[in-house]
Design goal:
single chain, 22% strand, 210 residues, 8 helices, alpha/beta, seven-stranded mixed beta sheet
Length: 210
């Protein structure tokens, strides 16, 4: 019986590999959603319209460290790297090792660092890579479905991790991320993008200069 189960597991692994190869990043993203649905906000990556609007307020000239929670298959990573200064750093954090392994295989930019870990540990992760604070932190995490207490923990750590004048950028189908951001940040701007599956709520939480 044990041998039969091992055989089934090997067969399933081979099929997963074939599906990922056939569908490319979409296959990896969908598999990640199936394995960790509570931690992935959607089965479909964000649209280019959402990306453009979300990143619009970023002052790229001053951005030395950009952090992203839940990068998935890198939908935002490449646009961020395209705009990031040459001496800047992009750190992405994800609890799903499938996504981290995929990103490390497909992004070779020396400014890019992929960390298998939790967003609640963002301060430790930033310090471990030689930085004091981030300029901007982007999140597509589904705050409405995270385990109880984890959302506020992440939001509080994020506020401490961002420099004065920086911002916490969130996109989600519900208003949960914006509501949570408003509890910790001095000023919150909001937006909406219809050209996304599903239509998406955007928020920019600004940390006032001291």
């Amino acid at each position: 019986m044990a041998g039969y189960e091992v055989s089934l597991e090997r067969t399933a692994t081979r099929w997963k590999q074939k599906l990922r190869k056939f569908f490319g990043p979409w296959g990896v993203f969908f598999q990640g959603f199936l394995e960790h649905p509570v931690m992935v906000g959607s089965i479909i990556p964000s649209s280019r319209f959402t990306i453009r609007k979300m990143l619009g307020p970023v002052d790229w000239g001053r951005c030395r460290l950009f952090v992203e929670y839940g990068p998935g298959v890198g939908t935002f990573c490449r646009p961020v790297l395209d705009k990031l200064r040459r001496d800047g750093t992009l750190i992405v954090i994800d609890t799903n090792k499938l996504f981290i392994d995929y990103l490390n295989r497909t992004i070779s930019d020396s400014r890019f660092i992929a960390v298998h870990g939790s967003a609640k540990d963002v301060e430790e992760i930033i310090r471990a890579h030689g930085h004091d604070q981030a300029d901007y932190i982007l999140s597509g995490l589904p705050f409405s479905t995270l385990p109880e207490g984890l959302g506020p923990c992440i939001a509080a750590a994020t506020h401490r991790a961002i420099r004065p004048g920086g911002a916490f950028l969130t996109y989600q189908f519900s208003k949960s991320a914006q509501n949570l951001t408003e509890q910790y940040f001095d000023r919150v701007d909001s937006g909406f993008e219809l050209l996304n599956i599903l239509p998406c709520r955007l928020a920019w939480g600004w940390k006032d200069t001291e």
